Amino acid sequence: MSLEFLITALVVVLVPGTGVVYTVAVGLTRGRWQSIAAAFGCTLGILPAVLASVLGLSALLHMGALAFQGLKFAGAAYLLYLAVQTLRASGPMDLMAGQASRTSALRTAVTGWLINILNPKLTIFFLAFLPQFVSPADPQAALTMLAMGGVFMAMTFVIFVLYGCFASLIGGRVLSSERAMNWMRRSVAAAFAGFGLKLALTSR
Q1: pTM of the predicted model, to two decimals?
Q2: Which among 161, 192, 46 has a CA at the least distance from the CA of 113?
Q3: Are 199 and 18 in contact (CB under 8 A)?
């Protein structure tokens, strides 16, 4: 496993996406342990994309326009649903799912899992990303890509936990201001809606 792969993977993980937005929002409103559950769910949602790329299924998805379109619109619809739910939430502790203080860690993790598993761009990303760091002549290429996928997931979990825990540290200050909460609620909703629309408008 090359240093180039490790650096590239770290940069990719650090770039904020839907998973980061969700984890940070959970950390701000539900605290550290819920943000860890969100990070775990988002990380677990990467696994199908890694396995699909390794097994070659992502190549079929890439070529199959109907399958890609179906999964793409399902993911976009779910992100738009999250945006609407965020805007409908009310009260300082009610940002993401209504009654956030009573939201279980399992539900938080499942939401994070769905955010990533319904994003077909992840599969195509790994299809293009992992083979760049594997020699075609390597008889253990599949195992090498599995190992790289595992490292990528481990990086994702650690970075997301750091994002979420940092957000939870400043959450109390944010939650004490209704104006700040309204601004954050609208920002998170806009981010989810933006990601959803971008996914829906992706042609391939």
Answers
A1: 0.74
A2: 46
A3: no
